[in-house]
TrEMBL record:
GO molecular function list: cobalamin binding; cobalt ion binding; methionine synthase activity
Source organism per UniProt: Candidatus Desulfolinea nitratireducens
Protein name, as recorded: Corrinoid protein
Occurrences of domain B12-binding (ranges): 91-216
Record carries keyword Metal-binding: yes
Length: 216
């Protein structure tokens, strides 16, 4: 019964059927299934398959967003049901946000959802955030990775300011910085001293895994 439920949860995510995902999550809890297993063996496998479909060109950004939102609906039901001492294995702790002067949210939110789905503990601080606010969030959450998004050419310099602020705060050796956004390139990331550059939410997961394994 549990394997069948895992498959249904995964398929709901793949199909982007939020109502089905919500109903299945509630049904799983009613049946006494382990919520952590439902997340790991159902939702996560579903979103990973969505990532593969996106990478192969079968899915596009709208499908990716819908599937990520679908997973979040089910997660909102299953996560509160986790037993007291039961926690998902944390790959790394990420603080993610859109830089000061930039109000774009979709890409940043999607990256956060995909990272969370793949085992990262994600703190999304929102949009239009100063370097000081990034630093504060890193300290509060003992973050190991910072994700800074900039969707405007005029705000790209804020990513550099965040890296400089981490250095000034004595945190650069314990925190890896990944940057992204439409105008951002690998050469720009190299130029400002970022540890990683991701052009989309799928590659962001791969980069985050690499940074999580990298020595501080």
């Amino acid at each position: 019964m549990s394997e069948e439920m895992y498959k249904k949860l995964a398929q709901a995510v793949i199909d982007g059927e939020a109502d089905d995902a919500e109903a299945l999550a509630r049904q799983a809890l009613d049946q006494g299934l382990d919520p952590l297993a439902c997340i790991t063996n159902g939702l996560t496998k579903g979103i990973q398959q969505v990532g593969e479909l996106f990478a192969s060109g079968e899915y596009y950004l709208p499908e990716l967003i819908i599937s990520a939102d679908t997973m979040k609906v089910a997660m909102d039901i299953l996560e509160p049901a986790l037993a007291g001492g039961q926690e998902r294995e944390v790959v790394g702790r990420v603080v993610i946000g859109t830089v000061e002067g930039d109000l774009h949210e979709i890409g940043k939110t999607l990256v956060g959802t995909m990272l969370s789905a793949n085992g990262f503990q994600v703190t999304d601080i929102g949009v239009d955030k100063t370097a000081a606010e990034f630093i504060e969030a890193v300290k509060e959450n003992n973050a190991t990775i910072v994700g800074a998004s900039a969707l405007l050419t005029t705000t790209m310099l804020q990513q550099k300011k965040i890296i400089e602020a981490l250095d000034e705060a004595g945190l650069k050796n314990q925190v890896k910085v990944m940057v992204g956004g439409a105008p951002v390139t690998q050469s720009y990331a190299d130029q400002i001293g970022a540890d990683g550059y991701a052009e989309d939410a799928i590659s962001a997961v791969d980069i985050a895994y690499r940074l999580a394994d990298a020595p501080a």
